[in-house]
Design goal:
The complex is a heterodimer of chains A (284) and B (420). Chain A is mainly alpha-helical and 284 residues long. Chain A is built from 13 helices and no strands. Chain B has 420 residues and is mainly alpha-helical. In chain B, strands 1-2 form a two-stranded antiparallel sheet. Classes of the chains: A mainly alpha (284), B mainly alpha (420).
């Protein structure tokens, strides 16, 4: 970003102004996440930096709230974490299967009404969650699946498939269909062709769509609030209740764990994206 | 000429054209069968239930089903003076069934919404019937009219008549702070009770400003990310993607900590002397909190489409603009900016669509003055249990969103949504 030496003063000033704005925006984006880390180690019960923390006194920091999170009495987090993982895993599997199949159909050039069908398949991502929540709640209540894991999993499959459809269609857009034709001409049946040729090639797209579906389910609270009973509580629902009633530092301990989880997912997704771009020969 | 050309045949003797069409059709069916499971699943669990919300929002069959004989008799009644004996008799026999099933309370509540004061006279009539005070061999009309003076008031009978149609648009009117007046015309509610219109306007206002803030903040950094060398931009991209992947509730929680009165933002303002320590401004539980938190949460949705468009703009275009005599500002405005308009459209529409239906963040940091229409829908779903009104409001919001979605689809195409 070094400026050439002949730059006029006013452009020089403008340039520094621009860099300052960008720095501010990046700070605005990322800094709020980091405020949670130190506060989750607060030895006191308040959500502000204590005097001791400002002096970096080791006694002002503790694992108290992490201990509380894992071993606390009447602790909802264990059940919530178990439910969240079970629901997210099944929702991801469902989304991947339905979404990948649909994406394969959609990227065929023979697909009729492609635009319209795509618009319907993506709609759960666009329609406000509160409306999806109301509609899905009415449906699940009617078929007797409200307040069950199955109901929540089905709801999250609805919300998760658009991501899989988008990522897999994007991967398939650079897909060379002559490889599958070559496989068929060499005597492979369609299932075998899919497992041995197509799937390995689109796998990065499938996995990154799956990650999106996982995160969507793991983070989803609006629909679960409508559907869940007491025993279906999930981490986001517990956080929602906690944030509404009283902010306890235990929530910050949970939030820190969630940030670490999302960092891991981000790294995986980025590695996959780069690998997929390399494979498809897109050099950026 | 075509009759002279020999038809091309395949080896089976079928004309090539027919054979090709057949293969084409087979491929079409194959492609459709792959999409079918998801499409069917979505239709059953999602699209139809949304359609059902419409039936629920206009459904007004409760009274119609409760008072079948009354409405049958009412068809001959002109609705101007007190109804004839047959209407009273019909009402009496319908009502007796309700009392036997103990469902007259629901009728009272529903009619009370139509005209105040119904609940008590329904209860009074119910007690008279339970005590067998009504003699069926005499005029029912006279006896009912003696139960309470309101039964002699024609307005109450007109109110019952108004509930006769099985469908009503009343919930939609209520969503716009209007109602059906006694004579069936549409009237506005009193000025100080127009809460929904305020909410619609506020939702639009917040969505619009959040979109503008996201654009103003997203454009410079998308430009920086697109023009920096790869190794720096990849690092900075994490600053955009990490919030994108982080739980919404975690991000909202961090804003709640930052914006509280003893929070870091206020500490900072005190430190630089912007505000006095004892007059720290309230930045949460109002519009400010909603704006700040929503802008940060939705910013990645603006940056990613902008970035992907800017990435495709060759830097030599700007150089060409400058070498042709344009100042950097002119070159930017005349060359670079117009090329980024597709990205701007995509980003702004996406952020606006997401902002207009936001629920969680306004509910947590918005307080009373920062809540949006979604919060009102949730309130009616959970607290007042007026599900038909919640459905009506939801569908009004949905129709707005679908219009923007349609524009988005025309301009950008849904398959071009960028995810990370």
């Amino acid at each position: 970003m070094a400026l050439p030496s002949y730059t006029e003063t006013r452009y020089r000033i403008w340039h520094y102004f621009y860099v300052a704005i960008c720095t501010f925006v990046f700070f605005f984006l990322i800094a709020p996440l980091f405020v949670i880390f130190p506060l989750s180690f607060n030895a006191e019960e308040f959500l502000v930096f204590s005097e001791g923390m400002k002096r970096l006194d080791p006694d002002a920091f503790s694992f108290r709230w992490y201990h509380e999170m894992v071993y606390g009495t009447k602790n909802p987090w264990g059940l919530a974490a178990k439910n969240s993982f079970i629901i997210a895993i099944f929702a991801t599997i469902g989304s991947i299967i339905l979404g990948t199949l649909a994406a394969l159909g959609l990227s065929s050039r023979h697909m009729p009404y492609k635009g319209l069908i795509m618009a319907v398949l993506i709609s759960p991502m666009i329609v406000p969650l509160i409306i999806s929540g109301v509609a899905i709640f009415f449906f699940m209540a009617k078929v007797g699946l409200a307040a069950t894991h199955t109901g929540i999993v089905l709801a999250h499959i609805i919300l998760g498939t658009p991501f899989v459809v988008i990522t897999v269609t994007a991967t398939l857009s650079g897909f060379d269909h002559s490889v599958t034709r070559a496989a068929s001409s060499l005597g492979s049946n369609p299932v075998n062709t899919f497992m041995k040729i197509t799937l390995p090639l689109i796998l990065p797209g499938v996995i990154s769509g799956g990650l999106f579906a996982f995160v969507t389910s793991f983070d989803e609270v609006v629909v679960v609030l409508f559907l869940a009973g007491l025993e279906n509580t999930t981490i986001p629902v517990q956080m929602w209740t906690g944030l509404r009633e009283q902010l306890s530092p235990t929530i910050l301990a949970v939030a820190t764990c969630l940030i670490i989880l999302s960092t891991l997912i981000l790294v995986t997704a980025e590695l996959l994206r780069r690998r997929s771009e390399r494979l498809r020969g897109i050099n950026r | 000429m075509s009759s002279e050309t020999k038809q091309i045949l395949t080896t089976d003797g079928i004309p090539l054209e027919v054979s090709l069409k057949k293969a084409e059709k087979k491929n079409k069916i194959k492609a459709f069968l792959l999409v079918a499971p998801l499409l069917l699943f979505l239709f059953i669990t999602y699209v139809f239930p949304i359609g059902e919300m419409f039936t629920r929002s206009v459904d007004d069959r409760m009274v119609t089903n409760m008072l079948p004989k009354t409405f049958e008799a009412m068809e001959k009644w002109d609705g101007k003076e007190l109804p004839p004996e047959e209407v009273f008799a019909g009402f009496y026999s319908d009502f007796k069934v309700l009392v036997e099933n103990q469902t007259q309370g629901k009728l009272g509540q529903r009619l009370n919404k139509e005209k105040n004061g119904f609940n008590s006279i329904i209860k009074k009539l119910m007690r008279q019937i339970k005590r067998n005070k009504i003699n069926e061999s005499q005029s029912i009309k006279e006896q009912i009219m003696k139960v309470h003076k309101r039964w002699r008031d024609v307005e109450y009978w007109q109110a019952i008549k108004r509930t006769a149609p099985p469908y009503t648009m009343a919930k939609y009117l209520k969503g716009m702070d209007m109602y059906f007046a006694a004579d069936g015309s549409i009237a506005q509610v009193d000025e100080d009770r127009r809460i929904h219109r305020i909410l619609w306007l506020r939702t639009l206002e917040i969505a619009l400003f959040v979109t503008i803030f996201c654009f103003l903040m997203g454009y410079p950094i998308a430009h920086l990310l697109a023009t920096l060398p790869m190794k720096y931009s990849n690092l900075l991209m994490i600053c955009v993607l990490l919030p994108f992947w982080t739980s919404l509730l975690v991000r909202t929680a961090s804003w709640m900590i930052l914006l509280q009165q003893q929070g870091i933002v206020n500490d900072f303002f005190v430190m630089i002397g912007l505000v006095a320590d004892d007059s720290r401004p309230e930045m949460m539980y109002n519009k400010v909190g909603t704006y700040v938190a929503m802008t940060q949460i939705l910013l990645p949705f603006m940056v990613l489409p902008l970035y992907s468009v800017m990435k495709t703009i060759s830097p030599s275009l700007m150089r060409a603009g400058k070498s042709l005599g344009g100042t950097p500002f002119v070159a930017f405005w005349k060359v670079y900016f117009p090329l980024t308009i597709p990205g701007i459209g995509a980003g702004c529409l996406l952020v606006f669509i997401l902002a207009i239906g936001y629920y969680i963040t306004p509910a947590l940091v918005g307080g009373a003055s920062g809540t949006l229409i979604s919060n009102q829908i949730a309130y009616h779903m959970k607290s007042t249990l007026d599900w038909s009104f919640a459905s009506a409001m939801g569908l009004m919001l949905l129709s707005g969103v679908l219009v923007i979605y349609w524009i988005y689809n025309k301009l950008v195409g849904v398959d071009n949504i960028k995810l990370g």
